[in-house]
Please model this.
Amino acid sequence: MADLIGEIDQNLFGGLNTFTSTANNNDLSDAESSVGSAADLSGDYEALMKAWKNEVASPTLLPMDEDVITTIILLLKNQETLVTQLSSSVTSPTTALQLNLYRIELDRTKYVLADYLRTRIRKIERNVLWYLRSYSDGFQYKLNPNHDIHDSESPKEIKTMYMSSKELKFAKGFKKIYEKHMFETVLKHLPETVLDSQPQLNLNLQSLEDTQMSNMIDSPKFDAYVLGRFLVDGQGDGWDDYKKGNMVLGVWDELREKVEGGQVELCP
Amino acid sequence: MSNLSLPPSSAGIGKPDNGTVARFSMQDFMSEESCVDVVPAFDCPVLSFISGDYGPFTAGMAVTVPLWLAVELRKQYRCRITPPAWLCEEFLQSVLNYEKDPLNETFFSSAPSPLDPSTPLPLPYHYQSIATVLLQTCPSDFPKPKSLLPLLQDIEFLRSSKSSNILKRLSRTIDGSDGDGEVEKSFNMRSGWKAMEVQGFKGVTCKMLEGVRGLAYGKEEGKKVGSGVSGGGGGGGETRSERPSGGRRKFQNSSRRRDENTESNNNTTSSTPNRQSQASNPDTPTVDEDGLEIANIEDGEELEEPTRQGGALRRFR
Model:
């Protein structure tokens, strides 16, 4: 058991911590930070909590750091082994207490991880076709593609790979099922093609994909409003008024890059 | 086993959004990461959790642990929780004084800590959750627990009125029709907000802003289309809206007619503007054989709904 603990120690960033007082240690003081004031939470755990909070609050999929997730899963596995070993050798009330505390913490971390993954899956399910289509390199999307108000607004490029490889597999499988369902219920009753005098305007009514005439695929809501908090002073055009610690209620499309870059954290 | 319950899934799979309970319990869950000082009544070496190492625990020596750990230990009577520096009468009174002052439009930021007057201490982000949990679990660890709850409630009340003022000001600045149809994209809410207050307004305000934005864009598109369908609809709507009273009075008269079910007195009871032409001309029949009035439509006027429906629609007025 001792070497298991040693292994866990190696995985943690903190090591032995000596806490002094609750309020001093963060660059963002306890009042402003929504992550707790523990001075040295394990780096991976803190990354998980931050990713979870941002993912719950954001309307679209955020990039996933697969290393963090794999490390957390490894830590959870180790902890579970520890717990089963401890439970078979309970000697004193103190050991029973330890066991109890380990179990609670395990529950908490498992909940956060599961909720994080669940939220991502739900977002993928809502807009499968769009996310899969955007998976190709250099895909560009336009905010409000049906509103051509700001024609000067250049389409934004989504850098690829927001899904992990497992999520991608899930998305592809889900898309297959979804298409089959749509075909069986609705699409097979529609005529296959509607011919037009101009051949490029032929409609394929049985297709779920975009065609020239119709924009069948809904994009996720990039124009939703979110509430966030600045972790650093705002820079760049229009953001100068925002200081560290200021809350911002803004369009997600504007804040997305800042959240991904770590300058803004969302409030779930 | 665990007395601290986990919040419901935030994905809310298959369930309609009964968001309030789920969101508040999620804030409580997040607040449990905050640290408190604890004086254990037992001995234990360092405990290695996924979230970090805590300990070693020596009976009588203060240790800093996360809130969930502290509450769990306290429930088993294995420790005593040291009240956090901000959860005392003196500090909360200074917060209250600041919030009470009508000149202070912004939220309270920080006051000197009662333990160490040189360091400024802010009110924690999750102060409501933490205070609730601590006062419920271990009131006996506090010097004057009964005085704290009223203070906290007063603070919460004053802050909520301040936050609603801020939101009112915000809603006044939103104007979807300022020339170019642009709704402001982001609002600086300044700092000092706390967890539960944020929870309270976030859902509604965000949906409202999205709605305003949608309306602004819809109107923009309507203007752009111009002489098209939406323009025609807009023009027609305006014509109709110019004379709402005339139309409504017509319905009322026709409904009265149906009630009375008489064919007489059709010229004497009228007071509507478009009836005056008929009143001045008593020969024109205003009521046909069913007792329904014949609509007097002038050129170019939009035809109102047929008066036969006057009776049925009456109940919607």
